[in-house]
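In full, the data.
>
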Amino acid sequence: MSRPEDTLPPDLFYNDSESRKYTTSSRIQHVQSEMTSRALQLLELDSSSLILDIGCGSGLSGEILSTIGPSEGGPHTWVGMDISASMLDIALQRDVEGDLLLSDIGQGIPFRPGTFDAAISISAIQWLCNAESSEVNPQGRLSRFFNGLYASLRRGGRAACQFYPQNEAQRTMISNAAIKAGFGAGILEDDPGTKNSKIYLVLTVGGGQVQGDITSVVKNMRDVDVQDARRKTSMREKNELRKGSKAWIMRKKEQMEKRGKVMKPSSRYTGRKRRVAF
């Protein structure tokens, strides 16, 4: 059985018919509810918060955010963004409480820095890994998304993204893109090795001294892989990067890739000085 991500772009796949079928399926509603509740558990919110719902679809997850009781830290205010106009139209018909935005997350997160306390995403970010044409670069789309998400969250904020990677390489590509954007990233897998396996990417904004760092989120949890690459380069190391050197070139290329630019692959000739021709 082929994956939806391998057939059409999300804005075309989720047309009026497919969007209504998705929303009215009792099985999908049940699974979506379980995954949203799990994501909220990983966020550990103890008070009403402003949450960004990434790939909100018809608002199934948003409804849960709105109905969380005060004893559980709710209810939460939420803003949803999705690329499918059909999905958002159904959300409007269902009169969900959140604000809705038609937007492609692969082009970034169009909100002011520090707007949100937290973010959730259910079954959405794996769509960023698909290239519908030679002009679409998955690494660039992931970079723009995670850099925008990092900026939109307040310091100490968290995000929990459930996703379905096609393979280990795609899983690594997604987590590495989050780390390059500055997040502390932990991957949690529920029911590993079964057909019901669910993978969550748990992200935090801020250094290790900030309360609510990723290590506290996943403490004592099984099947957790934590990667934290938030290491500031010392001034001494910066001074050693001589302009024009191979290290300087490699660093510049990495910075451009983080901004979503497509760079030529490096080789053994990168940064090598050329002989002067007379």
About this structure: The longest helix spans residues 26-43. The longest strand covers residues 153-163. The chain is about 35% helix and 20% strand.
